[in-house]
Write a structure and sequence with these properties.
single chain, about 160 residues, globular, Integral membrane protein, transmembrane helix, DUF6010, transmembrane, membrane
């Protein structure tokens, strides 16, 4: 069961990453980044929905809104500054998933599969962003290993 949830999460993360790559590569880089930020905020928004449906209380709702602000802020920074802010947001989201909603008190209102699926989904998207921008596959300027090879004269 857990393995199925992790596999489903990885498939979802792969689809989100593929859509982001296509948008960044063939439309405009900012469109792909906005997509990644939107999905990151949507992933956090589901916890607000779960808490509100369960009448988890004002404190929980405020906490979930705080999560939206944190991940939304990382999405904005990922669009206005470095895409590595998006990678960081996606890489940190499993901490929110697992500590608060799988083993923590949010477990009482969170569907069991959601935080587990989010772990593989989130980490796959974070790895995609780090690789795509770190190796210079995306972005308006040469970055990462491609730029280093160009400086050394070994660009491929």
């Amino acid at each position: 069961m857990v393995l199925d949830w992790l596999i489903n999460g990885a498939i979802g993360g792969a689809v989100v990453s593929l859509v982001a790559f296509v948008l960044s590569r063939f439309v405009h880089d900012v469109v792909g980044r906005v997509w990644l930020a939107f999905v990151l905020v949507a992933a956090a928004f589901f916890y607000l929905v779960f808490a509100s449906r369960a009448d988890a209380g004002t404190a929980w709702l405020i906490g979930e809104v705080a999560g939206l602000v944190i991940y939304g802020g990382m999405g904005v920074l990922g669009n206005r500054r470095s895409p590595m802010w998006l990678a960081a947001g996606w890489a940190l989201h499993p901490v929110w998933d697992m500590l608060l909603h799988h083993v923590g008190p949010g477990r009482s209102f969170t569907p069991e599969a959601y935080p587990i699926s989010c772990v593989s989904w989130d980490l796959l998207v974070a790895a995609y962003i780090a690789a795509a921008y770190g190796f210079g596959l995306l972005g308006g300027r040469r970055s990462g290993l491609r730029a280093e090879r160009a400086v050394r004269g070994t660009a491929r």
